[in-house]
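For the sake of transparency, this paper describes our internal protein records without simplification. Because each token names a local backbone shape, the row as a whole describes the fold. One such record is reproduced below, unchanged from the form in which we store it.
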Amino acid sequence: MRPARSEAGSRLQIAASAVLFSTGGAAIKGIGLGGFAIAALRSAIAVPALLFLLPAARRRPRPAVLALGVFYAATLVFFVLGTKLTTSAAVIFLQSTAPIYVVLLSPRLLGEPVRKSDVAFLLPLAAGLLLFLVAGAPVQATAPRPALGNLLGALSGLTWALTLLGLRRMGRDGSDDAPSAVVVGNAFACLATLPWALPLGFVAGRDLLVLVYLGVIQIGLAYALLTTGLSRVRALDASLLLFLEPVLNPVWAFLVHGERPRGAVIAAGLLILGSTFCKTIFDLRRGSAGRLEDAQAPRAAN
């Protein structure tokens, strides 16, 4: 019975990490600072938290990890900036288009051929992305510049795809550099955004508490729970549990801020998440993507 209990506990850890990741959008919208200040301070707090919680992240990063950290840092920054400008639903759904770029770039960057099933999978993803572009988004209190925010959300999908491709290449080499890449990415995100954030001026106590939550809990603790839980859970099960993040992200934004995305945005998100969900099950059951990176995780992107 002990192994079953261990696996159940590990599933709860992965589910908890996904729930924590999903709170990023609502938390970011609740901070009165600008996007650059939030990105800089959140990542500055996350770095020591990750180093404390993840011993594996303390190793000296290889040059490949430094390069990967650039793409991950861009993902972090684009997500924060996009979240401040458009709805949480739009940003998380657009970031979830990353598999489009993974499929298109894999042949050139990894030498992996495109299969017929990949092409079929791209059609609903592309339809969801096109629906975003056609529908547009109304201006509202929590989404003052939705067009620019949607663009940044789409860019975060591209940079997240490049991050996944880098993790996949490292995984094929037998290295486990994901924790180091997360630390390096946060450090780069802080350094890149800090000049645009200064001078910070007065930071309210409430804003500081939310920033600490984002760095220590939403990134640090969530990633620690994820890496611990992965040791006893199948890649398929872990991948499906991690779908809680994009599902819950707009829910928290609605409950906390009353943010209501358009019906077209929800429809586009369902197309994107539904097709990715089906492709994840298809690939992992075929055994063609046994590692979690191939199933769009770990989702420490946000």
